Amino acid sequence: MTRPVFADLAGQERVIDTLTAEVDRGNPTHAWLVTGPPGSGRTTAARAFAAALQCTQTPAGCGECANCKMVMNSEHPDVSFVSTDKFEYQIADVRHLITRAQESAGTGRWRIIIIEDADRMSERSTNVLLKAIEEPPAKMIWILSAPSPADVLVTIRSRCRAVNLSVPSTQDVADLLVRRDGLEPDQAMFAARVSQSHIGVARLLARDEQARIQREKVVTLPLRTTTLPQAMAAAAEISKLASERAENITGTDLQNKIAQLRHANGLGPEETIPPGLRGQFKALEDDAKRFARRAAFDALDRTLTDLTTFFRDVLSIQLKTGTELINEHLREKLERFAAEQSCEKSLAQLDAINETRGRLAANVNQLMALEALMTRLLPQPGRR
Questions:
Q1: Residue 384 is inside which H or E element, if any?
Q2: Crossing angle, helix 42-54 and helix 13-25, to 10 degrees?
Q3: What residues have CB less than 8 Å from 256, skipping those under 6 apart?
Q4: Hey, what's the torsion of the CAs at 258, 259, 263, 264, to 10 degrees?
Q5: Considering only CA atoms, which of 39, 53, 113 is closest in space to residue 81?
Q6: Which of 44, 76, 78, 254 is in Cβ range 3.0-4.6 Å of 71 for a Cys bridge?
Q7: Does the reported pTM lie above 0.70?
Q8: Over the stretch 8-62, which tens digit does the pLDDT of each residue have?
């Protein structure tokens, strides 16, 4: 029977067995690298493992004791969750982590630092972390997460024990949504399928009608984009949507942080900022701009991932694979589209989307990259 803290790891029985065995052994490896594609539960696995290590019950991982609850709520004083709002971790961030790692555990059995998105560390930042992982203090455990082992420098991954998560099945994700979130089975299955088993996205789509509407607009773009002017308009629409999402997130976050900083320094909402504090407020604004760039990139990448599902389904129909379509609710329209172009064209369209994702990650001009993409996604000449 799965211990409660691991209950949200859908379809990851092998990983759960590995982590629980390590907890029961009582002397876990000092450094771990948890990898898996988006939505596989990397962060959930790291958090559950930390909770089980700090658990005071037998068997460990009860989910009910004070330590388990504090870890799962990100409130345990000896478990630090580290992430970045920037494109990559800065050397100063990593040095701060190393200093934190030297602190002794207070109430828990271990001092644990969980680094999310370790793939966002530059080579210089990773090299700063290397020494701390090689020679950790007693009772110190590092848990790094990344999409794949190849995303982390070999010097780091060779010093970590690897835990590789797989993409859970659609049924596993649907069962989790029914059990944990109380969704109806049909609703949960739809969300699990269109999210491609990404648990977080599935939950969002199941709960948020606006998110479902936005996804539907993206997925059906190829059906509504048949001319060059329409392609240019579609590119501008995608770019604007991503920017608005990022601005909404960063704007609210920045205002909250400014309000907290004003309160901490005894300043009223409209009071002039003293010269000695202007540097702190300027740093907040600079961080918000970096976060906005990352948020816009993440929103765009998710949009292009959704767009990929359209052409993946088209190709599946053309090749008569017999597999369930991601966008099963659009089957009739997908079949008509598939009949009007060649398999080679569908493959080229999938390649175009993947190439654009790579270019955006390399920080090319966003609008120009999207315009080039939408041009390549236009229907095959003479076939529509």
A1: none
A2: 30
A3: none
A4: -40
A5: 113
A6: 76
A7: yes
A8: 898 899 999 999 999 998 889 999 999 998 878 898 999 999 999 999 998 999 9
DSSP symbol at 119: G
| 141 φ/ψ angles, rounded to the nearest 5 degrees | -130, 130
Q: What are phi and psi of 257, to 5 degrees?
A: -70, -35
Query: Which residue's entry shows tokens 């780091």?
Result: 156
| Three-state DSSP string of 338-381 | HHCCCHHHHHHHHHHHHHHHHHHHCCCCHHHHHHHHHHHCCCCC
Instruction: Give just the sign of the alpha carbon dihedral 144, 149, 152, 156.
Output: positive
C-alpha distances in Å from residue 188, one per residue of 42, 88, 167, 173, 324: 21, 34, 17, 8, 16
Report whether 25 contacts 58 (CB < 8 A): no
Give the C-alpha distances (Å, rounded to integers) separating 353 from 53, 309, 363. Answer: 42, 11, 16
In tens, the pLDDT along 309-353 reads: 999 999 999 999 988 899 999 999 999 999 999 999 999 999 999
- Could you tell me which residues come within 8 angstroms of residue 274 by beta carbon, excluding any fewer than 6 positions away? none
The per-residue pLDDT for range 206-219, each reduced to its tens digit, is: 888 888 888 898 89
- Angstrom distance (rounded) from CA 272 to CA 83: 32
Residue type, 287: D
- Short-list 29, 69, 74, CA closest to 52: 69
